[in-house]
Amino acid sequence: MSTPRLIKDIQAGRLTLTLTENGHRLDELIAFASRLNPRRGYLFVSRVLGKHVPVRPSKMDAIHAELAQAIKLRGSTAYVVGMAETAVGLGAGVARHLGRLHEHSVFHHTTRFLVPDPWLRIREAHSHADTMHMARLEGDALHAVKTTEDLVLVDDEISTGRTLAQLAHALIEQPELSRVKRLHIVSIVSWLDEAARAQLLSLLPSNIEINFVQLMAGTFSFAANPEYQATLPANVDVDFCDALSAQSAPLPLERQGLYGMVFGTYETLLEDEFFSRNLHVNKPHVVYGMGEFLDTPFRAALALETAGMDVLFQSSTRSPIALGDEVANKLEHPAPGDSSKTHFLYNAPLQRVPLAFDGIGLPHLSQALEAAHRLHAHNAQGQVA
Q1: Of 82, 91, 264, 333, which residue is least crowded by CB atoms under 10 Å?
Q2: Which residues form the Orotate phosphoribosyltransferase-like domain (predicted)?
Q3: How many structural domains does the chain have?
Q4: Running DSSP on this structure, what letter comes out for residue 83?
C-alpha cells in the first residue's frame, strides 16, 4: 500500500505531507494556517485541541482518553507536563485520564506568567514568545513526583522535538525526579521522520527509556511563498506576564497545575463561579478559556454538554495568525498584565452565546472577549442583511 502524499497550499507557501500512521485521520485532527511570524510561516491547527478551532468538549475528552490509554507506564504513577500555552489543556486532560487508569498522576505545565523563584527555564526557538519557565512544585504534587518512574511530556504536535529535549534534560536533572526511568513523548501529531527521530533521541537523556505516543504521524516539507512577508504585529505579546504577582489569594489558574496538581480516581468539584452565570439552556453556547487557563473552563463546558446543552469549547491565545486559509475570523482582547498588547481568538462560532473565563482575577478580560464576540456577531448579521 502506498503512503498517502498530500499538498496543502496556504498563504505562507506550500506544505507537502507524507502520512505514515493513521493518515485517514488528517481531516479529523488538523487544519492549516499561516503564521504572522517571520521565524516560521506555516501552522498546523489542531481541530481537537480546543485552541484555534471550536470543538465539542466530549471530543476533546475522547482524545485525552485515547492518548492516556496508549501510554504504557513503567510504574503506577506519572508526572505529566504540558507545554504552554497550546498544550496546557491537552496535558491536563491526559493527566486526568492517567489518574483514572492508574494509582494517580501529577500534572504540571510550563508557563509565561511570572512566578516567584522559577524552577527551570527553557526556550522555544520557533515561537514569537520564545522563553518560558516552570514554577516549583508544591504540596501533594511535590511529594507525589518523588516516587514516580514515568515522566510524560505532552505537546499538540512535534516537528523537531528540540524544545521537549531541553525540557526533558532540565527535569531529569532535578533531584525530585531521581527515580524516573521512562520518558514518554506524547502528541496528537508527530512529524518526525526517521532522521529527525534519531536526532531527537540523540538530544534526549540517554540513561532512561524513551517511548513515543501519537495519534497520527507523517513527514512534511515546506516551500515558502516569496510574496508572503510575515511580520509580527506591533501589539503582539512576547513578554512574561506579571498579572499573578498583583493578587494575593490563590487564583483559579494557580490551582489547575501551575504549581502541580494530583489527579486520582476522585476529582475535585468545579467551583460555583463556573455555574453561576446566567445560562440560556435552550441556546447554543461556546465556553472560552483564555491563554493558559484552559482545563477548568473545559471541564465546565464538558459538564454542560453532559447535562444536555449544546456547547463548544475553545480558548484565546497570544499567537498571531493570518486570516484566511482555515482561519475564518479573529477576535481580540487586551493581554493580561499589559493592556497595550493583544491576545486573539480565532474561528469564533459567532452564532453562539459566549461564556469566557480568565482565571486570573481580571474579569474585564473575559468581559472584553465576550464583548468582542457579540460585536463581531452583530457586524456579521449586518453584512448578511
Answers
A1: 264
A2: 29-218
A3: 1
A4: P
